[in-house]
Amino acid sequence: MIDKAIIDQWSSYKSKTKTPFYYYDVDLLKQTVATAKNEADKRGYILHYALKANANPNLLKIIFGAGFGADCVSGNEIFRSLQNGAKQETIAFAGVGKSDLDIQIGLYNNIFVFNCESIPEIENINYLARLKGLKIYNIGLRINPDVDAKTHEYISTGKKENKFGISAWDFDKVIEKLETMKYLRLTSLHFHIGSQITDMNVFVELCQRVNSFNQWFKDRGFELEHINVGGGLGVDYQTPDKNLIPDFATYFSVFEQNLKLFPGQKLHFEPGRSIVAQCGSLITRVLYIKEGKTKNFVIVDAGMTDLIRPALYHAHHHIENLSSDAPEKVYDVVGPICESSDCFAKDVLLPETKRGNFIALRSAGAYGEVMASQYNLRELPHAVFSDKLGSVK
After folding, report:
1. Rounded Cα–Cα distance for residues 9 and 125 (Å)
2. How far apart are CA 90 and CA 229, in angstroms?
């Protein structure tokens, strides 16, 4: 729950507080980062934060300052990581469509590994590496394990019909091709099956597939140093205050109990949503209350341009009125964008709401600010941090 003292501070800044904005609970982020790192360190696991979840520099400084590596999917994410404390030897670079410029950024910064998703990509990285010089670069193979993540179809990435990864029937071709790649060295296998996974049995199945693939490569003479199982751990969007910090202990235990590493192999994870989702809220202000025959609408100044998840995925975010404790009424909470999809929630119970009330959309720290757009020529939302409330503009 957002602290009442913070609400009072927002109210005191009303004349200069511009909504909508993202509010980040810095203490919660630090607690989450520390919990994940401690549980990983107990088991000797290595963490790379997935920048695609949230690339706000203030958050990155905290995450990388705690010793996380980086999981990047673009050259600009590599730059952002390096600018905010990530070490180049901890940067893993994934993505099904790496451009030549993206690859060159990775090569010139001597990153930890390129996680490759196709034979043509492997050929291109080798070609660009040859142009750069004589150095041998580490690559991993992103494997499509055909595991159903049991999540929304748009964020499922590990089934055979998804565009991501190399499928088992191409392994022989990949090995044959790697034998001709003079500037690349295969050091790892990489997996990522999707996002917002809450069923731990999905990760058990992933472990079983990883064990099989790991053995397949060992039988063919590959002594792989690293296994990367990606991220995907979900968070509690329904009742965030009950589970502000995900259960990293149980999550890592699933891999500890089910994954069979060979001697010397290191296990890597790429958490994103689970690190930052709960520390962020989108704060918006009520513009109008519109009463209809069958619906009452709360029209707020935030829209799908600021938080696209409900429009894109029909995603749920817990909504709170921070300014009212009146008896509850049923509302649809909608934004100002000229799209019917610009709706945050339907038939939600809120205290009776009035123009000027502050509304919080919770668990918005992941895939919120980073996916904002300027459709309708709207301004991008700014960010406010719990330890810098006096800087609200």
Report:
1. 52
2. 15
* Residue 286 one-letter amino acid: V
Q: In whole angstroms, what is the distance from residue 283 CA to residue 2 CA?
A: 11
Structure tokens at 236: 């509690």
Domains of the chain: 4-23+278-391 (2.40.37.10), 26-275 (3.20.20.10)
List of residues 6+ apart from 165 with CB closer than 8 A: 117, 142, 143, 144, 145, 157, 158, 191
Alpha carbons 287 and 302: distance in angstroms, whole number: 10
Number of neighbours of residue 191 by Cβ within 10 angstroms: 27
In tens digits, what is the pLDDT along the chain, a chain of 393 residues? 666 556 666 555 554 578 999 999 999 999 999 999 999 999 999 999 999 999 999 999 999 999 999 999 999 999 999 999 999 999 999 999 999 999 999 999 999 999 999 999 999 999 999 998 878 999 999 998 876 544 434 334 434 444 557 988 889 999 999 999 999 999 999 998 888 999 999 999 999 999 999 999 999 999 999 999 999 999 999 999 999 999 999 999 999 999 999 999 999 999 999 999 999 999 999 999 999 888 999 999 999 999 999 999 899 999 999 999 999 999 999 999 999 999 999 999 999 999 999 999 999 999 999 999 999 999 999 999 998 875 444
Tell me the CB-side half-sphere exposure of residue 238, using CA atoms within 13 A: 3
Phi-psi sector, 47: left (phi>0), alpha (psi -120 to 50), beta: beta
- The answer to whether 22 touches 369, Cβ cutoff 8 Å, is yes
Burial class (CB in 10 A: 0-12, 13-18, 19+), 307: buried
Residue type, 169: W
Four-CA torsion 248, 251, 257, 261, nearest 10 degrees: -90
- Do 103 and 125 contact (CB within 8 A), yes or no? yes
Q: Which two tokens stand for residue 350?
A: 């809120």
Residues 6+ apart with CB under 8 A from 202: 147, 148, 149, 150, 193, 232
Q: In 3D, which of 348, 324, 351, 323 has the Cα closest to residue 334?
A: 348
